[in-house]
Amino acid sequence: MVIQVTKIVAAIPALNEENMIAKVIIHSMKWVNQVLVVDDGSMDDTSLIARKLGALVIRHERNIGKGAAIRECFEWARKSQVDVLVTLDADGQHDADDISKLLTPITDGRADIVIARRQSVGVPRLRRIGGRALDRLISAATNREVVDSQSGFRAYSKEALEHVRASEFGMGVDSEILMHASTAKLRIVEVPVTMAYKNLRASTQNPIYHWFDVTFSVLKFISIRHPLSFYGGFAAIMFSIALAFGFETIDYYSKWGRVVTNIALISIAAGILAFLSFFTGVILFTLITVIRDERFAK
Questions:
Q1: Of the residues 204, 231, 287, 295, which has the maximum number of CB atoms within 10 A of its CB?
Q2: Within its chain, how far is the Cα of 188 from the centroid?
Q3: Where exactly are the structural domains of the chain?
Q4: How does pLDDT run along the chain (298 residues), one tens digit per residue?
Q5: Which among 150, 177, 155 is positioned nearest to 99, based on CA atoms?
Q6: What is the pTM for the complete model shown?
Q7: Which residues have CB under 8 Å from 262's CB, separation 6+?
């Protein structure tokens, strides 16, 4: 089934990319009807160059984060009735001529979201290891295999734009989108593209901070979607620790007539954490249930 699309837009979040933004815009224009640049507080001529080349520019007066820029792209696309939105980075790491590869699965009716699966050349070892770990984490959280969960080079159909949300401000936004897509049962397809790190400006985001940012975003999402399992599981672990150290304390007291303070404190602390975690899960589950019921009632 072929899907008719009349409005394709390339959205480019940018921060201080005056050296590369022109190339990215010019190559993108060959495949789309319009280019949108969200300048996230650049201190250089990124916005000026983008406007001169005919791109629509939305500028943040200060740097808010990639997540905020992506959210701006989605909101603009929904209001503008865009048929397909393509997001790509402004630093030149993505080959804009690969946009055609991302469009095909959507126009063929096979996908709602298409991810450019990067076959990277010269990727730093730490970044490669961290990326693989995050891919496994996202695959587990979404119950589907995602080979390149951190790729920001993607295409979104109109259907996808109605369901995906970007509430994260930082680098966790790409993972958040996939988890929302999984909940909405959107079709996700990955297509291979080549990306080279050579000659690229060093990332402003520390890879270790990136890893923790994404990991915490995933944990936050899971805790909201499955509060009883998430907090209940942690409570069960803490309760087991409390019991183990509690029995150890009692056993030592029965043999020697005195209490080992450190062991007893660990048991008490674990018990308190188990209690707090369990009731946090119950309260959050109740609130989410009430909110969902109110939505359905409307």
A1: 231
A2: 14
A3: 8-219, 226-297
A4: 667 788 999 999 999 999 999 999 999 999 999 999 999 999 999 999 999 999 999 999 999 988 899 999 999 999 999 999 999 999 988 999 999 999 999 999 999 999 999 876 556 666 677 777 788 878 877 788 888 888 999 999 999 999 988 887 777 888 889 988 988 899 999 999 987 655 555 454 566 766 677 777 777 777 877 788 889 999 999 999 999 999 999 998 898 888 889 999 999 999 999 999 999 988 988 887 776 656 555 5
A5: 155
A6: 0.77
A7: none
- Token pair belonging to 238: 């803490």
* Helices and strands in the chain, H and E counts: 10, 7
Please give the Cα distance from 205 to 126 (Å, whole number): 13
The edge-to-edge listing of strands for the beta sheet with 84-87 is 56-60, 34-40, 8-14, 84-87, 154-157, 113-121, 188-196
**Would you identify the CATH topology of the domain 8-219?**
Spore Coat Polysaccharide Biosynthesis Protein SpsA; Chain A (3.90.550)
